[in-house]
Amino acid sequence: MSNENQQNQDTTAPAPAAKKKKVATRKTAARPAAKKAAVKRKTTARKKATAAKSSRRSTAQSKRNVVKEASVVIVGAGFAGLGMAIRLRQAGVDDFVLLERAEKVGGTWRDNTYPGAACDIPSHLYSYSFAPNPHWSRHFSGSDEILGYIEHLVKQYGLRDKIHFQQDVTDARFDETKGQWRVDTRQGDVWQGRAVVMAQGPLSNASFPDIEGLSDFKGKRLHSARWDHDYDFSGKRVAVIGTGASAVQIVPELAKTAGILKVFQRTPAWVIPRPDYATPDWNKALFEKLPLTRKAMRQALYWTHETMALAVIWNSPLTRLAERLSLIHLRSQVKDDWMRRQLTPDFRIGCKRVLLSNDYYPALQRDNVDLITWPIARIAENGVRTCDGIEHQFDCIVFATGFDVPKSGTPFPIRGLNGRELGEEWSGGARAYKSVSVAGYPNLFFTFGPNSGPGHNSALVYMEAQLDYAVAGIRRILDHDLKILDVRESVQQRHNRHLQKRLARTNWNSGCKSWYLTEDGYNATMYPGFASQYRRQMARFVDQHYRRVPQTGNA
Amino acid sequence: MANIDLDKMLAKVKSSQWALADIDWDAPGADLITAEQWPKLKAFMADLMWIEHVGARGFAAMAKKAPDDTLKQIYTYFHAEEQRHANAEMALMKRWGMLDGDELPEPNKNLKLVIQWLDKYSDDMPLEVLGSVIPMLEIALDGALCTFLLDTVDDPVCHQAFARINDDESRHLGVGFHVLEMQGRGDLYIKALKTVATVLDPRLILGIASYVPLLNRMRDNVVAMGLSEEKLYACMKKFERIGGRTAQGRRNPWYQIISRHGRMVVNRDNRTYHAPVDLMVRLTDYIPERLMPSRVPTWVKGISYRPTA
């Protein structure tokens, strides 16, 4: 039995009967008390909320300020938020809400619909093990199929009624006297919960590069994560700025329709072949009829990716091998030696995200495509001026420049104990305990929190571990009627010292600039280890590491 | 002390960018080129443009070798800026009717050999070699030639373009000398050993064989244009003067080699140097076309006189 399955049994299987019973008892015992308190609080909270809002927001003046309550408030209805909802429900916690700022679920996969959008991790691994899909059409599915899977999760688990759309969270603050989080939305609603789960996603805010004259351009401007499907590219002069994970997927597609396509590159990335194929029908049928075969597939993929850690995370002979394979890929696809030089990375493989593509290099060599490696001086009315003095004129500029990944801040103010504000504390780089909890911010659980990123394996494998860890925490709060469950500062510090020591020896910290690091080179995003190590760490919820204050007593 | 703050320099470089579109290439004044000047100027401009282009390739190689990210970025910008100079010079040639249609002018044979060498070996050369040769090329060929040009050509557009080019070049030189000094800081013994080892590298010997006659060829071209070669020499001496201002700079063995070589170049009485080198220049002219490198690297084709693309 593999590690992964073992752990799935420990943490992800629906709660057995005994557990369910306990949860039921907890529900009946804890809820009335909480409700009583809530009723008492409601009027004062309402007054407070009204006062606070009238000074803060004018747009929401006309709205009512009803405080809505739930045991758990989940921010975001993407992969993380929906996964959290499913795991909570499976653990017997049904009193939760999901606040979604858009009108649809899906997060990153709802937003990224550019031509060619797909996942770099095989679908059988880039899906929840507790919600398997035997019908994936390809080894690497496109964004529409992944979004379909996410929407299917909502249906299958009956989550539709739990999701509140157009609820853009603007503020979250913890009331330590009540042990309640108060969450405000731009729409003027106020939510209260005993626990909050941050599932807003790290790749949710489109990032534009810091280029002079960005707004001077008079033609069409597009961001890869905000695609305009009505815009017709055929015959147009198009620029793609950026050569990261989105760009290598967009470029081959745009090259087919655009009249002229110029790709602006600052730093070439390591590109390796993408072993993609359509899954034959018999195979899908097999996965459906014999779930064991699907599980075996997932296991095989999981362990293949685990071995990649040796090449990607640490500098080892496998790193050299991976670099050599990538260079062979480049040499076999690009004939011109100057272009090969332009496309050869000068940093260690793994330091930045490794890209998978079979058609990016060929696309760059098409007659209608140009690779431009001159630095961009500025954007002008009609196009992009490069430092070789030439103005490249375009009808449309596509920004494939990724996302503002929060490494040193929070998407909205989060206030914890004694008025401390998380954004300020994280200004030098985000720090958490096991990527989920942050000292001073009780009853708050992060998904994709600090140092939770894999460089070699499926983010959803890490996500499952975080979800189950959060469930363990939330159940403690509800089962034991805790006002405060707060990780100890010293424990968090020790954890981070250890993390940073290990990170210093990884390829991510080997000298290149990437979105993994802050401006000062602090790594607040990646987990320095195997997925199996991460999951082992997350499987244990050590009560001694947390300060607990019951609702009725003192610390 | 030529020590400069590289971060500030990078910011300065970024904020000083200009484009061909900033200059009106059709402005009046093109007729100020005399009929007598025209043929010599055409040959001269072609050489100048190619030297800028070759210098650009040198910076591209240096960007790969740069010891830190700031210097790497600076060199990446300088690479583009040298290309911009070549583009601007080609635009001037276009303005003066010196281009055959849209064709790039042919580089002379010495330049062809240098291009070939740069394409094949420059990425393998240590930063010390390129970091010393490039300032010399910049001063002697680029900087000096530009000054001569402005002395003889009255076209205001030419002056406008070269005011910008010289402005860029002053930053290139500032960084060049800074790096020369930086490299002089290491242990002299190790430096000397490394230098000897590098000199023994046959790839470098090939490079020297291309660089040395190029200097003499350019001297001949300058003289052909009716300019005083003394001015070229004065510029070359500037390399020795500025590079040798500080002890660190003087400790750089490559500075020593290049500046000593410069002294030999400017001393016309040194027959032991000039006789064989001049012979090399003449011999290059006799290399049959079929033996010249036939394959033109793609980067050579990147020049354009058009402000927009």
Automatic annotation (TrEMBL), chain A:
GO MF, any single term: monooxygenase activity
Classification via InterPro entries: FAD-bind_Monooxygenase_sf, FAD/NAD-bd_sf, Flavin_mOase-like
Gene3D superfamilies in UniProt: FAD/NAD(P)-binding domain
Polar residues composition bias: residue spans: 1-10
Record has Glycosyltransferase as a keyword: no
Composition bias, Basic residues: 18-56
Protein name: Monooxygenase
Organism: Alloalcanivorax balearicus MACL04
Lineage: Bacteria, Pseudomonadati, Pseudomonadota, Gammaproteobacteria, Oceanospirillales
UniProtKB/TrEMBL annotation, chain B:
Record InterPro entries: Ferritin-like_SF, RNR-like
SUPFAM superfamilies in UniProt: Ferritin-like
Domain of life of the organism encoding this protein: Bacteria
Protein name: Reductase
